Amino acid sequence: MDKLKMNVLTFLFVLTACFQNGWSQEGYTIVTRDLESWSSVGLRFKPNKKFSLQYEQGLRLNHNSTIVDQLLSDLSMKIRPVKYLEFGAGFRYIKDRGGNDLFDNDFRFNFDAAVRHKVDRFSFKYRLRYQNRNELGLSRAEGDNHKQYLRFKVGVNYNIKDWKLDPNLSAEIFRNLDGTNGGFDNLRFTLGSAYDFKKFGKLGFYYRIERELGVTYPKTTSILGLNYVYTIKTKKKDEK
Q1: Residue-level pLDDT, tens digit, the chain, 240 residues
Q2: What secondary structure, in 3-state letters, does 66-104 show?
Q3: CATH no. for residue 104?
C-alpha cells in the first residue's frame, strides 16, 4: 500500500510539473505556462474630441518576468467622425528577442474600425483590426514571411458612481491569415482599470490571460500590465 501511495504521489508531482513548466519531448522542453510583465509610457496629443495622435514606448518581460522579450516604439492615430464610430491606424517598431537570444528588428502596422455605444452605466466597444508584421532587413527569399492577422475584440466598461477606478473587461480572438496555417490561434482576456490624475495623466493597470489555440501543447500566458499616458489638449478660446 505504501508503495502504491508513493507511486500515486510521484505521478501527481510529475503531472503538476508538466502543467506548470512545460512538456519534455525528444530532448527539448515545450513551455506551456509563463508570467509576463508589460509596461509602457505614452504621450497623446488631442486637439479635439474627434482626433488624437499618440507616441508610446513599451517594454515586455517574459520567462516569469525576468528576461527582456520586446522593446516597442508605437505611433498611432484615431479619428471619430461620429460619436459611435472610430477609425485608427498604428505603426510599431519592435526589437524582438529571437530563439538565439539575439534581437531582431520587426515592423508592424495595423488598421482599425470600432463601434461604441452605451447602455445605462455600461459602455461597449467592438473593434476589428487588421495587422501585418515582418522582419526588417530580411527578404522573402531569405525567410521573411509577413504575419497577417484579423483580430476581433469586444470590451465593456462599467461606470461606478463616485468611484474613480471603473473596471473594464475585454475578450479578443486572433485569426491567422496565413494561407498554409491559417486559423484562430490565440485568445486573450483582459481585466483592468485606470486612474485619471487629471492634469498629470492617466495610469492604467490590468491582468491579462492569453491562450494558444489549435496546437498540441497550448501555452497559457498570464500578463501583468501597467501603462501611463499624458495627454496634451488644446485650450478653447474662452480658456486662453
Answers
A1: 455 445 544 544 444 444 444 444 444 567 789 999 999 999 999 999 899 999 999 999 999 999 999 999 999 999 999 989 999 999 999 999 876 778 889 999 999 999 999 999 999 999 999 999 998 877 666 666 788 999 999 999 999 998 999 999 999 999 999 866 679 999 999 999 999 998 899 999 999 999 999 888 999 999 999 999 999 988 765 544
A2: CEEEEEEEEEEEEEEEECCEEEEEEEEEEEEECCCCCEE
A3: 2.40.128
Instruction: Tell me, yes or no, whether 14 and 86 share the same domain.
Output: no
How many structural domains are present in the chain?
2
Query: How big, in percent rounded to 5, are the helix, strand and coil portions of the chain?
Result: 10, 65, 25
Same domain, 5 and 48: no
The model scores a pTM over 0.90: no
Domain of residue 199: give its range.
Answer: 31-239
